[in-house]
Amino acid sequence: MDFIEFLKVVVLGIVEGFTEWLPISSTGHMILVDEIIHLNVTESFMSMFRVVIQLGAILAVVVLYFRKLNPFDQGKTRNQKIITIQLWVKILAACIPAAVFGLLLDDWMDAHLYNGYVVAAMLIVYGILFILLENRNQYTEFPLQKTAQIPYQTAFYIGLFQVLSLIPGTSRSGATILGAMLLGCSRSAAAEFSFFLGIPVMFGASLLKLVKFGFSFSGVEIFYLISGMVIAFVVSVYSIKFLMGYIRSNDFKLFGYYRIVLGVVVLAYFSVTALVA
Predict the structure, then answer these.
(1) What's the CA angle centered on 245, arms 240 and 248, to 5 degrees?
(2) Measured between alpha carbons, how far is 162 from 240 in angstroms, rounded to an integer?
C-alpha cells in the first residue's frame, strides 16, 4: 500500500466529515478534491467510496444524538418514549420521496449530472437562496422551535425538499435545512431534523452502492473504506458540534456566501481544465 494514497484517503475522509453536515455540499467538495488529488483506484470503486464513506458520518449523528433517538432509553418517561417513536415515524415518512426517486434515478444522475458544471451551478444557486431566505427571516419568529414540534405533514414536505439533493452540488443538508426553514422550522430544529434524515437516507444509499459494486474488495480497498469512514466519523463529530453552536447566535448567510465562492472556483477549475484538454 502506497503511503501517499493513504494520505489521499485521509484528506477525503476529512473533507467528507467536515462538509457532510454543513449546508455546503459534500459532493461538490469531494468531486473537486478527487480531481486534484485523484485516489489511484478504479472509477467504480471511487463512485462507491464517495457514498459509503458517509457511513462514518452517520455514526457520528447516532453517537451524538443516541439518547434523543433511542425510544427504549430507560431514563425516559412513557410520554418521552412516545415522542421519540413519533419522531422516527416522521423521519421515515420524510425519507420516502428520496428513497423512491433515488432508486429510480441513481444511475441516470451518475451518468448525466455528476460533473463539475452541474455542481458549480447548484452551489451558486443554493448559496443565493440561503442569503435571500435569511434576509427574509431577519425578524422572523419560527413557530417550530424543536424537532418534536414538527408535524407529520411538514416532515413529509421536508422530505420532498430532500429529493432536490439528488442533484450533485445541492447538498442534502442544505436542501433539507432550506426546506425546513421555509416551512417554519427554527435553524436548530431544521439542522437537527436534517441530521436525523441522513441516517436512513445515507445508510440506504451506501447499501445500494455496495450492492451495485458487488462486495468484492481487495485488502487495500477494505483498508481505504474503513480508514475513510473512521476519519469521517471523528471529523463529523466536531462538524456537527460546530454547526449547532454556530447557529445559536448566527444565521446561514455565511454558508451561502461560501457556496457562491466555491461554485465560482469549481466552475473556473473545470472550465480551465476543459480548455487545456
Answers:
(1) 130
(2) 19
